[in-house]
Fold this sequence. Notes:
The structure is a single chain. This protein is α+β, with helices and mostly antiparallel strands. The chain folds into 4 domains: 2-96, Tetratricopeptide repeat domain (Serine Threonine Protein Phosphatase 5, Tetratricopeptide repeat); 140-411, TolB, C-terminal domain (Neuraminidase), CATH 2.120.10.30; 431-529, Sandwich (Immunoglobulin-like); 539-652, CATH 3.30.1330.60. Helix content is 22%, strand content 31%. It is built from 11 helices and 34 strands. Strands 6, 7, 8, 9 and 10 form a 5-stranded antiparallel beta sheet that branches. A hairpin with a 3-residue loop joins strand 25 (463-468) and strand 26. Helix 4 (46-62) packs antiparallel against helix 5 (66-78) and helix 5 (66-78) runs antiparallel to helix 6 (83-95). The chain is globular.
Amino acid sequence: MTLVAMFVTSCAFTKEVKNGETAYEQKKYALAIEMLKEEYKNESNSRKAARMNYLLGSSYEILNDISRATRYYEKAVKDGYGEQAQRGLARSYKMSGDYAQALKIWKELSRIHSQDQMIKREIQVLKLASEWDQERQNTTKIYALDGNGRFNDYTSTIYEGNYLVFTSDRKDATGSEEYKWTGNKYSDLFIMDKEGRGVRRFDAEINSNFNEGAACFTQDFNKIIFTRCSGEESSDSYCKLMYANKVDGLWTEPQVINFVVDNINYGQPTLIENDSVMVFCTKGPDGPGGYDLYYSEMVDDDEWSAPYLMPSSINTPGDEYFPTSCRDTLYFSSDYHPGLGGLDIFKTHLKSDGSWAIPTNVRQPINSSYDDFGLVIDEYVRLRGKEIEKGFFSTSRGKNGNDDIYSYTKYLPEEIEIDTTPTEEPQDDLSIYLAGKVLTDQYADEDDPNSEVTGLITLSDARVEFSGAITLDRRSGKDGLFIEELENGKSYTIKASKPGYLSKTIKVSTTGLNLNPDEKSYTINVDIKLDRIFYDQEIILKEIYYDYDKWAIVDAAKPTLDRLSTLLKDNPQIRIQLSSHTDCRGEDDYNAELSQKRAQSAVLYLVDRGISFGRMQAQGYGESQLAVECECDTECTEEQHQENRRTTFKILR
Length: 653
């Protein structure tokens, strides 16, 4: 993807290009491909030839020409270049949608690196992608716009209700220089109608001889904020956020946004909260890793506050790019949140309490195994018939990995009639009853899930659903009671639920009961205890221990994690964060790494028990959040150290 290519890494042009590898090192990938192909023809050393194939695969991967990347990675693997080529080939298989081949390679590598968390994560993400691929529904239609050219066209935004302003490196872009990374022109902002007709350069005052892209407008279309990547020929290039105002129908000379500092890349702005908040992408010192989303608040005309990092539910150790918005919903792309390959588009929304909801993947057909980004919802279009939403997005699924702009239309799903006619079941002479009670824990501190449990209280009006031999939907009455007649020799699944509580499922069987032949009735008594939901509060998982300096799950911890897996299966709508903490002993960086590995081990254990990878996130805090504050080397008792060495989970909003 071209904008990511020019955004992710600054580009130096100071070193003389002697060969294809030098061109690759200087990120002149188009030139590197040309030189490496020529050098390969005369290379007799098999090891050097294998490396050339690897560098060709890597160059094509960076330029998003995945079919050619796959071809050269396959050659490098065949020539014995090794694991680096295997990893590249696995990535290219995934991005081309060949999940089975990618999974095969990662499984082979996992046998060599059994504790490699990245490999384990890739395996689980590929399994999840395969599941989504099978579950896709045909309620969304997508179309490539006619205005797409033979080059890269991407990151559109709606302008004045009837037009799209987008980024392109087509031949009629401003200037005569070639961008060494791609071999194409430097990108400009272009404009066309929403059908893809009448393509032309946007405005001479905005476009320059450098790379322009990723623009947004205020609601009145009188201010533009966009990305410009520039630098002297003898120095690195960096991307900045620029703005310009429309005065009497003409755009003013672009200025740099006030919080932008030198030698840092910024880009891809969007405006939310009635244009009072700008969300954008950069690589800040306080982020979890890679490029992250930040926001800034308007403090005066054309003046913005210092940037703030978006929450950890959005930002990941990977890269987050291309924020866009529609009302209270924020869309963005990520290469780390579980997805189908490359960048996937996710959505989140601002809740009434001011926090952001857990991001969800928008799935196929908008997302694909390729890079998908820059989703824009058309709020100006008139919807007809069963249409419920129209918009645009950018994707690299085009020819030779070029970015193109697609439109999409979402439709109401087809309604399926369900036969609800009850079936007649034979009756038994013996009357068997289930007498149940729905309960919950009473805490010493009702706001603290880790406080002492002082007793049990009943829950009235809880929903009690029966499935299996019968299908029933009941409510618990006064004192949490419910009674139902069952049949002999049958099995039942009973699920209890209530808003504000975690659902729980139990199984009851009337097979093999020790019955007195003279009795005409028999009663089975059960209690179903529901746990209160404490959002965003850590709940300590007791009996989760690790061997010293290790992160593997020991046998003693498995029963507790098994109970957690059952809870997650009973409540498929929730997502959790599993966290691990260390005591105060040891170096900060070492403790942070160890706790992260321990949290990831707990997540992977639950994945092995059938919990979807996308529902969990691991977080190691090291010694940064001690439960008991004490003087580490002199005053802390072993019991206090043990209390600090805890594993917790919290339910994410």
